[in-house]
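Entry 12.
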Amino acid sequence: MNPQRRLCLTAFAAGALPLAPLPVGAQPAGTPPAAGAPAAGREFRVLNPAQAVEVPAGKIEVLEFFAYWCPHCHSLEPVIEAWRKTLAPDVVFRRLHVSFRETRIQQLHYALEAMGRADELAARVFNAIHVERLRLDSPQKMAQALGLDVANFTDVYESFSVRTRVRRASQVADAYNIDGVPAFAVNGKFITAPSMTGSNQAALRVVDFLVQTERRSR
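Predicted 3D structure (tokens):
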């Protein structure tokens, strides 16, 4: 199995993330949760220390850790797109593309982000990699696959600002101790993943629960 795909399958059950005291509304590990409520240490973990968020005061950040080359992220994409439409105005959804040693595709995401086209073209990138099986191993091939001007895209892709975004993304993923994707962090305090909850839909239900937990704690 491709080592990148193996990393994509990695679960968080190994306990790499230490538990911290829980805020009001979340259940401690080992304590039976309220009926139907996710349990800490099982469907989600509490980050210790909590991480800084990049949203205005009063907003709740939901951060998705993903990678275009990950088949599980590909299958999650349509579910995410439908779910995003249900988010309340106080929730800010952001995406962070991890590396796991595949920096070329990671850099593609941040080039598209710098162009303001990451959301628009995400489905096309996933399709190019997982359906068309294209080798996007150069900015020229990436631009051609996405119908972009090759010269303009290459300039953005190779720019200092995009390389800075790539380095920053890797630093954030390291701070969160991310060892598998897809995964979600809520307000820098909680992390969950389909590998913890059993399905994509269940993971998003846990994200919704954690958002509500943060909202109640204000």
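Annotation: The beta strands are 45-46, 60-66, 91-97, 183-186, 190-192. Confidence is low (pLDDT under 50) at residues 1-7, 9-35.
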